Amino acid sequence: MKASALAAELTKTRRLRTGLMTLALAVAVTGLTIASAATSPAFSSPQDSWSALLAGIGLAFPVCSPLLLAVLASRQVDIEHQSNGWIFAQTSRVTPGALCRLKLLTTGPGVGLATITASLLVLAFGLLAGDGGAPPWGLWVGYTLCVLAVNLVVLGLHILLAARIQNQLVGLGIGVLGTLFGVFASAMPAAIAHITPWGYYSLVAVAEYQGEELMLQRPAVVSIAALAALAALGFTAVTTFFDHKEA
Amino acid sequence: MQALRAEFIKLKRSLSWTVVFLLPLVMVLSGAVNTLMAGEQPDDGWHTMWLRSAVFYGLFPLAVGIGILASLVWRSEHQGGNWNALMSGPTSTWRIVAAKAGSLSLLTAGMQILLLSSVAAVGKLVFGLPGMPPPDYLGITALIAVACLPVAVLQSGLSMIFRSFAVPIAVAFTGAGLAVVLLLAELPGLVWVFPYALIGRTTQLGTGTFADSGHISAVDVLTVLGASGLLTVVLLFGSVAWLERKDF
């Protein structure tokens, strides 16, 4: 992979205000988590304080991520459709598939940073304003890593969608449907949640209400690992197909 | 009127109907599937059906839906040399802005009618609820359509300013997120003057969720109408002023 192509892709992210989008993701998740936890009676109870924050962040990610990731991917890819960038890149020996991989490589770290920042900000809020003692470190780290993996999978999927379908309405519409599926998947059986990448937001949740009670649980690590491996294979296969497809 | 007709001709092939039809339908179906998955029935009949469909819809999908429609309404103008053609034509700035906002408001009103129709259809066909939804919901539907006017004008203005299809939608989503924080914090003063919070608050009327008492008073209705009217006029003048000053 040429360093110059990577540098060009990074320049595009600056021009497209990708940093602002990822900042919006971090702020939205943090704001929604703090607002929902602060208004929840469980947050003021010492034994449920951390659970309330984990439940809040477990809802905030599926609400905020799908659409903002769709916007991010859509903007990053749309410029190639607008300015015939696919052919222009090919003349510089950067194939469409390689261009998609570069786009994931340049936007992925921003999404990762936003995910970790949101998690750290919520953790800091819990330490400063909560009354629940030491945080459940293992669950917190596990949740952050798992939701990061889901976010990257969803981002990759949207990059491929945006590259294949020029109409941005489709990608953003799928983002909206993904949000709904991500939010409502927690009420569905786990088998159904496994069907789409957005359902995995509910599988990584480590705190959820069972009736009136807040229960802690381990994230479905095996499912997330399988999703990540399958997504990596799928992304490689589809981008390789793009490389061999006539422009 | 001619400008408005022209807008609908432009929208014919824009797939805007998919948003108008699918978004309310998907929201109602999501609420119904959720209820079925939990092995429950709508305990309070039509009230539960409405509550499960409309409240979440008003929190962010509705604002995002209006954002998508606004981007579709303005997309054709940002392509090729259409912007110059629009600006150099005989149609005044005021009529352009009003026609765009008007077409968007009509599409948005259509979404609300479809929401109520979907609630009625799913309530009857899936849950076998007796009778039809109470007439109150027709009034609330009309109020939601009115409360959507400021957001429609604002989103139309944003899609006019930004060439990007996706950025105004991201703004709508962020605005809706901020509105959820205001609604959770129960700040009535700010809720009525922030367009995205206004639609969220209006979809909650009569549901007893968030800060809603569960009863709709004349004050509630007049506040929605007053706030919507005032915000719509201010945002419409703002959009016209921006287009008058910035386009040269």
TrEMBL record, chain B:
Segment forming the signal sequence: none
Stretches assigned to coiled coil: none
Key words of the record: Membrane, Transmembrane, Transmembrane helix
Transmembrane segments: 54-74, 94-117, 137-158, 165-185, 221-243
Domain of life: Bacteria
Keyword Membrane annotated: yes
Keyword Transmembrane helix among record annotations: yes
Pfam families tied to this protein: ABC2_membrane_4 (PF12730)
Protein name: ABC transporter permease
Species this protein is from: Brevibacterium gallinarum
